[in-house]
Amino acid sequence: MSKEAILGAIRRGLKRGPLPADQRAMLEGRLATHPRHLIPARSRVARPEQIALFIRNVEKEFGSVARVPNFAAIPQAVADYLAAQNLPARFAMAPHPELKRIKWADHPMLEVEIREGQPTDLVSLQHGYAGVAETGTLMLPSEAGRPTTLNLLPDTEMVVLRASRIVGAYEEAWDLLREERRDKLTGGFMPRNIMWVTGPSRSADIEQTLELGAHGPRALHILLVDDDPAAKA
């Protein structure tokens, strides 16, 4: 069933016809201009402080961050983290081009499986699209190179994120997505799914007792690639 058919069925159910021209123009104008919400002042700082703010907020929400100088340093950083957490050296990795270009074969102790996530996975390595400094949040849109299952099924999620992809506010992350993604068929920019991840999964629904791993990974580790000269203090 097409989008127009679905919307038409909803209108008929509400006993309402097509929108008047003035209302339609108003709604289309709002969608086209992307009005800003309030942006917290704490994110309006220099680049080094934005990166520091992102890291502080990740750690405040029970995540961890390791800064690496480049992509070549990622395998050793992964091995160090897995060893420190007493985790196996085997993990499922997103089939993103930047991750696949890493010379994993130079580190034979690591067992890399390039695929989607599975319920039995203990560890995953995801590619981060953007980070939001104001809350320490990762933006993870779904696509072939970033399977959503890697964000949900493994017990521990590692995410590679470029420092140059950290922005101050949520609105700026949306700006990146609108600028870089454009569907040839519809002209839209939205992927099937976008996950906003702030620390590991947790819940305090039962007796206000915090439980990590309630709805997804119980541990989140970010490998932050220092690729932005302006972000270095």
From TrEMBL:
<dbReference type="InterPro" id="IPR037171">
    <property type="entry name" value="NagB/RpiA_transferase-like"/>
</dbReference>
<dbReference type="Pfam" id="PF02589">
    <property type="entry name" value="LUD_dom"/>
</dbReference>
<feature type="domain" description="LUD">
    <location>
        <begin position="52"/>
        <end position="225"/>
    </location>
</feature>
<dbReference type="InterPro" id="IPR003741">
    <property type="entry name" value="LUD_dom"/>
</dbReference>
<protein>
    <submittedName>
        <fullName>LUD domain-containing protein</fullName>
    </submittedName>
</protein>
<dbReference type="InterPro" id="IPR024185">
    <property type="entry name" value="FTHF_cligase-like_sf"/>
</dbReference>
